[in-house]
Amino acid sequence: MDVIRLLPDSVANQIAAGEVIQRPASCLKELVENSLDAGAHTIRVLVRDAGKTLIQVTDDGSGMSVSDARMAFERHATSKIREAQDLFHLRTMGFRGEALPSICAVAQVTMTTRRESDEVGTLLEINGSQVQRQEPCQCAAGTSIQVKNLFFNVPARRRFLKSDSTELRNLITTFQHIVLVYPDRAFTFVADDEIIYDLPVGTLKQRIESVFGKSKSKLYTSQLLEIEQQTELATIRGFVGKPEAATKQAQQFFFVNGRYMRHPYFHKAVMQAYAGMLPTELLPPYFIYFDISPELIDVNVHPTKTEIKFADEQSIFPILTATIRAALGKFNIVPSIDFLGGDIEIPVSNDTMRANAKAPQIHATAGYNPFTPQHERVTPHWQELYEPLKQQVQPTSAPQQAELPHEMSEAPMHPQALAGGYISCVQDDGLILVHARRAHITILYYQLITQLQNRQGVSQQLLFPEQLTVSADEQPVLEALLPDLQHIGFELEKVAANTYEITALPSVLGNSNAEMALRAILARAGEDQRAVREDMQQHIALTLAQSAAIPMGKTLSEAEMQDLLRRLFALPSHRITPDGKTVIVWLSAEDIARRF
Ligand code: ADP
Ligand code: MG
Fold this sequence. Notes:
Layout: H1 9-20, H2 24-37, E1 42-48, E2 54-59, H3 66-71, H4 99-105, E3 108-114, E4 121-127, E5 130-137, E6 142-148, H5 155-160, H6 164-179, E7 186-191, E8 194-199, H7 204-212, E9 224-230, E10 235-241, E11 252-256, E12 259-261, H8 264-273, E13 286-291, E14 297-298, E15 309-310, H9 313-333, H10 351-356, H11 382-385, H12 387-393, E16 415-418, E17 422-427, E18 430-435, H13 436-454, E19 459-469, H14 474-488, E20 491-496, E21 499-506, H15 514-527, H16 533-548, H17 558-569, E22 584-588, H18 589-594
Parallel strand pairs: 1-7, 11-13
Antiparallel strand pairs: 1-2, 2-6, 3-4, 3-6, 4-5, 7-8, 9-10, 10-13, 11-12, 14-15, 16-17, 17-18, 18-22, 19-21, 20-21
Helix pairs in contact: 1-4, 2-6, 8-9, 13-16, 13-17, 14-15, 15-16
The structure holds adenosine-5'-diphosphate and magnesium ion.
Adenosine-5'-diphosphate (ADP) binds at residues 30, 34-35, 37-38, 59, 61-64, 72, 77-80, 94-100, 143.
């Protein structure tokens, strides 16, 4: 008997929905992108209970005919591409024809839609892929889609959703990613009857101001510098923060062809432009938009993916760094004039100021190539690994990252403790100095971040539970952090309105004070509640690593030092701590000779 059969559409849709629609925010993204693709000028978003009970998107776009309204919910039904070739010229947001069928497979959907030219519109009601109702209706031109009780028929998924505060934050972040690309469209966002955003049409700068500007007295955007660079590969434009705008948790956004993207590699390029201008713990805000021929990027990776592959990232990297450097340099000479909203700073530049001003400095080291793959550099000698560190001592060369190949971690080492908490390793050709506490922080950080991401924190029960009392404004921050805190090994029980009992803590913390560690995490998280998930995880890992690491100045035995160094050199990045502090200093024989 044959056993293979085609899945019914409703089942296929539910499976696909798992990929496209993971949470309320992904549903919101698909709906708003459809409205934009339909040419809407005004898009209104309304959510209830962080989108768990209702997500409604109303637009004044093209609307749909009766049969299109019905077709829109069929799998792989799309008006946006016709053949595979079209994939390489995509300029619309959607193209897979997966979103609407996926949404209606896992929710109760009502849609009204009408084309401007039609007398009557269409109302369609679908519950878990089953069409319940389709009839003519009176409605405004455009489309309005209501998605109710997301995952009502997939309890496992519903349970997987985070607390309302987390899901609402995801919704807002997703919304920000879109509105920062379309300042020429008006948007509103209402959550449980509260108007979160009411964004009029304007310039990009005005849009950034209306999204992130908080007080009337000081314009957020007066802290930003405009960048613009056209090359054959790509056009880069947008805004970057002046050095004094840097904060611990800055707004940092990349977009490519109108889509938000994450791009850790380009982030490095930006940070390189600020090298030497910022204290290590501060980050500059940036809003950077790439325009690139669609053939040169691959967005067809995954519908929810925000990491986008560029064909020629390595050539764009130095262009990006230089563009930002130039903007920062120019700003040093010419004070900025801001014409937005009447708050005009009068330029007070005069000749003496110009004479004293620093010229833009773009360091270029002949022959320096940051993109040479590390494995191509054969490094038979220990000291060569520290070439970059040597260069670092000479401030004119570009920073470079050296990675220690794994076999080097087996190299014989004879570490010696230096007073003050340093470890020295004498080699034939030089001397390596390691900051023991920072080395330990770095090791623990990577260990914790892996545990967090895999949800494999190791906990240790407390014999005597400790109490943690939080203030009213810390409470929502703590609630938002709770899932990650649990993943890392904390067990917290709410025993009163603002009081939690800590019954277990991550075992790395050993005997250190659980309450103190939690307070440190809360204090940092409270600074920016908009921070995205990964940032939260990074800062939980960093704070715990700092709480658990050996104190500065502790004397270690030779075995402990050897263990520490072996673990440090096995890390993907061991030169600096996750918050950018120096872990290792290398003095070559030449450096030493020069001192005599
Ligand atoms: P895709 O956007 O990938 O084409 P979707 O499932 O999101 O797939 O939408 C299917 C089709 O439904 C779209 O191609 C479009 O023709 C139509 N559609 C969806 N939303 C709207 C809207 N708000 N206004 C007009 N047409 C829409
Ligand atoms: Mg779509």
